[in-house]
Design a protein that fits this description.
The complex is a heterodimer. By secondary structure, chain A is an alpha/beta fold. Chain A is 36% helix and 27% strand. By secondary structure, chain B is mainly alpha-helical. Helices cover 82% and strands 0% of the residues of chain B. The chains are: A alpha/beta, B mainly alpha.
Chain lengths: 251, 222
């Protein structure tokens, strides 16, 4: 079942068209990878899904992006609700300069998800468990999050998203600052998480896209050139531009 | 953009082509040994097999090395994995040329059971199919590969008719012909197996070129 559908989606930054007529459908509880050379529009597309591009001056969007039947790019869309439903993980983990526990409960407090101390403790445990951090950090919940390792910080950022009960996790190069072992563990975590969440990951690492995603989209110059099952994209792409990119002849 | 991988793939391509040429020569020689009743030629085929075995290992190792070092995708991945499979098929064909030569050695000192008519025809088909399958690989020619796959039934029919003749006209009538008829029956079977291997190569080539699986799915050939 589709979780996100884009229809004739176009996006401009001033005069520059960053997305061109994107028609796509992202499956629920699957991992979809978006690949393509730098500047192809893959991060822009990801940022459309939680309206992060609104922060860029001169941005203009045409077309539709349907999440749960609602067009989230319309002016009437509820942005607070949208960002609760669609969380984002960035390239460099960016925990708040607060304790581990405060990082987790920050969002839920704003959204009024937790009211009592018991609820808070339960949510912290549940969120940290879901990113496999609980055992490591259960005795250090009041320690500053900025003192964690890079991998732990990235896991904490994912736990922080999960705490507000989203549907969709957007990940923009989530492993690019991690070493191969930590990358492997985050990938394992993503496989776990897809049982409950729809995950869209932007990555420069083609092998990572091939390893973890169910579907893959290849973008070039703002266009979604090809979209399909990952095994087909990496063994038998239909478009020559996809073939050239994934075999390293281009980009 | 020229990639270092392209150079490596060219080398792999050359090696597989070399393997193909060597294997074709061994089939040719084994069939000639049968026709000319020449012990020397048959022995040459048997002793040449170790060189082909060695090359098979080299090619296999190269393919594994390329996969490990380059993590190839798409057309590159299909080329390398197909190369590995074709390599194995060619090595099997060379083994069959050895089998034919061993049967020839059993036959050379005995009087000919009958003039060889259909066996040379079958061997011509087998040699043509192998040559065309290798050509299809070299030129990435899916059409030619398809023709190879389709010609396999011709070989099957011819094998059946030679077998019927050997069994009904000789073995069934006179059991004493067994020491001459059975090696011929086996050679027939071997030649037909060569055609099957050529068909496998051709099916692999179609996958390599068109990313279409026709093996076990003849309907995909249309």
């Amino acid at each position: 079942m589709s979780k996100i559908i884009t229809k004739s989606l176009n996006l401009w930054y001033g005069d520059f068209q960053a997305l061109e007529n994107i028609n796509s459908s992202f499956s629920e509880k699957k991992i979809t990878a978006i690949i393509g050379p730098s500047g192809c529009g893959k991060s822009t597309l990801l940022r459309v899904f939680n309206r992060m591009n609104d922060l860029v001056e001169g941005v203009r969007v045409k077309g539709e992006v349907l999440i749960g039947g609602e067009n989230i790019v319309s002016t009437e869309a509820d942005l607070v609700g949208l960002r609760k439903k669609v969380g984002m993980v960035f390239q460099r983990p960016n925990p708040f300069p607060l304790s581990v526990c405060e990082n987790i409960v920050f969002g839920p407090k704003i959204h009024g998800i937790i009211k009592t101390r018991e609820q808070m403790e339960g949510l912290v445990e549940e969120s940290l468990k879901s990113v496999l951090l609980w055992d490591e950090l259960k005795d250090r919940l009041d320690k500053p999050a900025l003192r964690l390792s890079l991998e732990q910080k990235q896991r904490l950022c994912i736990a922080r998203l999960i705490a507000v009960k989203p549907d969709i996790l957007l990940m923009d190069e989530p492993c690019s600052s991690l070493d191969p072992q930590a990358t492997g563990r985050i990938e394992e975590l993503m496989r776990e998480l897809k049982n409950n969440y729809t995950i869209i990951i932007v990555t420069h690492n083609m092998q990572q896209a091939a390893r973890i995603s169910d579907d893959t989209g290849f973008m070039l110059l703002g266009e979604l050139v090809e979209f399909g099952r990952t095994e087909n994209i990496f063994t038998a792409p239909q478009d020559k531009r996809t073939e050239d990119y994934i075999t390293g002849r281009y980009g | 953009m020229q990639r270092h991988l392209d150079e490596e793939l060219k080398e792999l391509h050359k090696d597989i082509l070399k393997m193909g040429v060597m294997v074709q020569e061994e089939i040719y020689k084994s069939v000639e040994a049968l026709k000319d009743r020449e012990r020397q030629k048959a022995q040459e085929v048997i002793s040449a097999d170790s060189r082909i075995d060695e090359l098979e290992l080299v090619i296999d190792e190269k393919c594994i090395d390329l996969i490990a070092r380059y993590q190839p995708m798409a057309g590159d991945l299909r080329f390398i994995t197909t190369g590995m499979k074709i390599n194995a098929e060619l090595e099997r064909i060379a083994d069959i040329a050895v089998d034919i030569s061993q049967r020839v050695l059993e036959l050379v000192d005995k009087p000919l059971l009958k003039p060889l008519v259909d066996i040379p025809k079958l061997s011509a088909i087998a040699q043509r199919m192998v040559a065309e399958a290798i050509d299809a690989f070299v030129n990435k020619d899916a059409e030619l590969a398809k023709n190879v796959v389709l010609s396999d039934s011709e070989a099957d029919k011819l094998k059946d008719s030679v077998q019927d003749e050997l069994i009904n006209d000789y073995l069934a009538k006179d059991a004493k012909t067994a020491d001459r008829a059975v090696p011929l029956l086996l050679i027939c079977r071997y030649l037909e197996r060569i055609c099957d291997h050529a068909t496998n190569i051709a099916e692999d080539v179609i996958y390599m070129v068109q990313a279409k699986v026709v093996r076990h799915h003849p309907e995909q050939l249309k």
